[in-house]
Amino acid sequence: MTTTTETTAIALNKLTTWDGNVRKTNTAEAIGEMAASIASHGLLQSLVVKKAARGKFAVVAGQRRLLAMRELAAQGRIDADMAVPCRVIAATMDAAELSLAENAVRLSMHPADQFEAFRDLIERGSSPADVAARFGVSEATVKKRLKLGKVSPVILAAYREETLSLEQVMAFAVSDDTHAQEQVLAQLTHWHADPSDIRATLTQDKIAATERRVRFVSLAAYEQAGGEVERDLFTEDEDGLFILDAALLDRLVTERLQSEAEKLKAEGWKWVEARSCLDYEAQSEFRRVYPQPVAFSEDEQAELDRLAEEYDALEQEEENEKTSARLDEVQNRINELAQRERAYTAEALSMAGAIVSVGHNGDTHIVRGLVRAEDVRPADLDGEADEPKLTPTHSATLIESLTAAKSAALAAELTNRPDTALAAVVHALALKVFALHGESSLQLSLAPMRYREASAGCEALEAARAAWGERIPGEAEALWHWCLAQDSDRLLQLLAFCAACSIDAVQKKHERADTSRLALADALAAALGLDMAQWFTPTGANYFSRVSHAVIVEALAEAKDTKPMRSWQAMKKSELVTFAEREMRDSGWLPQPLRPAA
After folding, report:
1. Which among 154, 174, 179 is positioned nearest to 164, based on CA atoms?
2. What does the alpha-carbon distance between residue 452 and residue 409 come to, in Å, rounded to a whole number?
3. Of 449 and 259, which is predicted with more confidence?
4. Nearest-CA neighbor of 95 among 146, 140, 61?
5. Judging by beta carbons within 10 Å of its beta carbon (0-12, 13-18, 19+), is residue 504 exposed, middle or buried?
6. Which residues does 479 contact at the CB level (< 8 Å), separation at least 6?
7. pTM above 0.70, yes or no
8. What span, in angstroms and rounded, lies between the C-alpha atoms of 73 and 189?
9. Could you give the 3-state DSSP secondary structure of residue 371?
10. Burial of 336 by CB count in 10 Å (0-12 exposed, 13-18 middle, 19+ buried)?
């Protein structure tokens, strides 16, 4: 086949597109980039043209270059009749075949080569803005390519060999530490090759902008105080932001906590503390008092007494539409008056304190009514010692005999009153659970369990304890009248909570797993349909760091239903702990002691 003739210059306004171009799609792709390149570097490759009608020349190869030059001419950046170097093909040549060869044979530049080329341009002194202008791309695009060009050459080589995807390379770019990148690459297996896992491993020692302390002070406040951040260019929103000045963050957290503590002091507490974290174990060291309903004013008490008398009188009348309507009005008003605000008593404020801390979601978490062990007031210091002593008129033996008869009579009567019996049981249990001063006549034994380690179950119990503490009175005598006034459903709910606080399914040291106590605990779990996977997730802190290397490997193999991997066995214990925590986070795997009994 005869090839083209020599290169000749043809005016831009005499060049036209050719309908026979084999590229039918994406002909306008990256015209802006091409225009910027031509403006900065000139036309680096001649066009291939053929003669057309009316003195025009149709562009067989180089259509995007033609469109880019037209755009530059429209912008006034080049002349509309600028001389363009072209090679004119003979009329006998197959223009379609030439167009196909120009598009099909051309080998596109590998992205990794492009990343390194952009990196080299910047390192030779060009600014990202200058490079962006010369190549017709955004400055953000230049920065991303520069970031990718700076990842370890080992990772780029793996990308060229197609053992890594572009998404994985982007994940590696979250860190500038090429040594750390290569360490993660060496440990990469198909089990944790997801880009999110790579990114999580390389940022595990960084403070994310989504961390609770950052949310507590706000990212804006941190930056306003001069704090610098690092951004992952390939992650959207705050998920890709990291705090660089940990000391500044700690100072801002402390300052805000102290500010919140000052507000608490104005409430009149005996003491106030500010802590960055208040976990279950720390909170369990304190007793707790709760706010009580605000006392009625004289006018409110008078109205309540009058309404109660009217209600009793209306109930004695013959029922009709008028009395029924009035009964409803009176009851509604009594209910309104009963909805009292709650406040801590002066006595509670004089012995209890409050702690302000950073909540799990970065909110301000305040726990009020905490009583230190040394401030707990024994029952015999509540004023009983000031009462005059009475001279006994009966012997101790006789008193015991008489009260035994009374006790038996009470028991006999209670047998036929299940509603009152339920109230009595709940009252006795609640006295123990809420550590209120007083003793029930029912000899029920209940010592509320205190767990040494925090867990999801502990948090749920403490949340329930706090909720009930807001509902019930804070004094033994008042609690008795409260219990009598409740319906069966409410008492059963409180009874269930009190009973729950007494459960002891802990297998002690040197204790067999088949003891009757633990067997009954398993039976209770079966009756409840307990799924421990909903309550426990193995982590480095609560499990993996406390077992051997071999046990972790076995756990991984069991969870993934595969043979132990050599890469797992080759890891150091600390690396394996981190790996296992991440890999088994959503697996549902449980250690043997937490699995349902066979």
Report:
1. 154
2. 43
3. 259
4. 61
5. exposed
6. 427, 430, 431, 436, 438, 472, 473
7. no
8. 53
9. strand
10. exposed
More confident residue, 240 or 494: 494
Contact 420, 491 (CB under 8 A): no
> Residue 549's CB: how many other CB atoms inside 10 A?
15
Which residue matches tokens 């088949």? 514
Q: Are 128 and 141 in contact (CB under 8 A)?
A: no
Give which of 292, 311, 299, 309 is closest to 337, Cα–Cα. 299
Pairwise CA distance, residues 576 & 34, whole Å: 50
Q: Which two tokens stand for residue 452?
A: 């040494």
Beta-bridge partners for 84 = 10
Rounded CA gap, 560 and 588, in Å?
Answer: 11
pLDDT exceeds cutoff 50 at 394:
no
Question: Directed axis angle between helix 488-500 and helix 418-433, to 10°?
Answer: 40
Spatial distance between the Cα atoms of 560 and 242, rounded to a whole number of angstroms: 32
For residue 388, what pLDDT is reported?
36
Q: Tell me: the pLDDT tens digits for 104-132?
A: 445 456 778 778 877 887 888 888 888 77
Average pLDDT over residues 264-290: 88
Contacts 24+ apart (CB under 8 A), 174-180: 174/198, 174/199, 174/202, 174/203, 174/232, 174/234, 174/235, 174/240, 175/202, 175/203, 176/150, 177/202, 178/151, 178/152
* Distance set, CA 80 to CA 69, 70, 71, 72, 528 (Å): 9, 8, 10, 9, 84
Cβ atoms of residues 452 and 506 within 8 Å: no
401 has pLDDT over 80: no
Q: List Cβ neighbours of 193 (8 Å cut-off, separation of 6 or more).
A: 168
User: And the tokens for 291?
Assistant: 């706010």
Dihedral of the alpha carbons of 98, 101, 107, 109, in degrees to the nearest 10 = 30
DSSP conformational letter for 474: S
Mean pLDDT of 483-501: 84
Residues 6+ apart with CB under 8 A from 233: 140, 143, 144, 147, 173, 240
> CA 594, CA 583: separation in Å to the nearest integer?
19
The distance of Cα 124 from the centroid of its chain, to the nearest Å, equals 44
Give Cα separations from 271 to 128, 279, 371, 511 (angstroms). 56, 19, 10, 42
Residue with tokens 């590998």: 110
Helix-helix angle 573-583:195-202, to 10 degrees: 140
Widest Cα–Cα separation across the chain: 138
pLDDT digits (tens, 9 = 90+) for 140-193: 888 888 888 889 999 999 888 888 888 888 889 888 888 988 888 888 765 557
- Residue 444 pLDDT class (50, 70, 90 cuts): low
Residues 531/532/534/539 CA torsion (nearest 10 deg): -160
The amino acid occupying position 266 is A
CA distances from 327 to 106, 199, 299, 303, 589 (A): 93, 68, 21, 15, 59
86, two tokens? 């072209």
